[in-house]
Write a structure and sequence with these properties.
The protein contains 8 helices and 7 strands. The protein is of the alpha/beta class and about 240 residues long. Strands 3-2-1-4-5-7-6 form a 7-stranded mixed β-sheet. Helix 7 (about 160-165) runs parallel beside helix 8 (about 185-195). Residues about 1-5 and about 140-150 have low confidence and may be disordered.
Length: about 240
């Protein structure tokens, strides 16, 4: 019955010996149909910065689907036009900016909002989840030129400025583990500022290999929540 309900029918020769989650994942990835996101229990409004083609938005959308909530993609910001085009086709955000994020959010932390930032806040409206994966090349252990001291590392701080502007319920930031050793101090500055804004934080490094990916790929996530009790349900 489970196999018959999958989006893509998988013949028995393809699934013998596989566990149910692998079967489901294979069917989901091969399906040409977009999942049906129904708002049985409300909506979740999402802003995705440094969005790329939408990996984090997709993960959040699937979590929403499992919880019976509909993801609403309010804003995406991405430097690369091709990646932004892919995001737009997949998620159709209400607003999208292709270009430098500083053009939208130029203010220093704790400084008065610029006219552009005020307009952006009004345009986007209420935000539930702010997510983003700032450039990681400057903190990658494979970077032997500007590692830990790369100008792009400062963009990590834009996540804190966005949290200040949009006041979301949840902030999710993804980067390589080396971000915690950045010589500019941007990681610590961002963490401290989120705490000043009233967020409770959980910082965890996860390996994609532990979640079914066929490679060792570690990433450090900062999870900042306004609702303190929510962290009690978090398991590393």
């Amino acid at each position: 019955d489970v196999l018959q309900s999958l989006p893509v029918k998988i013949s028995s020769s393809n699934w013998v010996g596989e566990n149910p989650s692998d079967i489901f994942d294979k069917s989901w990835m091969l399906s040409a149909d977009w999942p049906d996101y129904k708002a049985r229990f409300g909506n979740v409004k999402i802003v995705d910065l440094f969005s790329g083609c939408g990996g984090m938005s997709l993960g959040i959308a699937e979590a929403c689907r499992a919880l019976g909530k509909k993801p609403i993609h309010l804003l995406s910001v991405e430097w690369d036009a091709i990646s932004g085009e892919v995001y737009n086709k997949n998620f159709n955000p209400r607003h999208q900016h292709i270009g430098d994020i500083v053009d939208l959010m130029s203010g220093d932390l704790s400084s008065p909002f610029s006219e552009q930032e005020k307009a952006l806040k009004t345009q986007v409206g209420k935000v539930d989840i702010l997510c983003g994966g700032p450039p990681c090349q400057g903190n990658s252990d494979l970077n032997n030129v500007t590692r830990r001291n790369d100008p792009r590392n400062s963009l990590y701080e834009r996540m804190a400025r966005a949290a200040e502007i949009f006041d979301p319920e949840c902030v999710l930031i993804e980067n390589v583990p080396g971000v915690k050793r950045d010589k500019t101090g941007v990681f610590t500055k961002t963490i401290n500022f989120l705490e000043e804004l009233g967020y409770q934080l959980q910082i965890v490094t996860l390996n994609a290999a532990d979640f079914g990916v066929a490679q060792s790929r570690k990433r450090t996530f900062v999870i900042a929540l306004k609702e303190v009790s929510a962290l009690s349900h978090f398991e590393e």
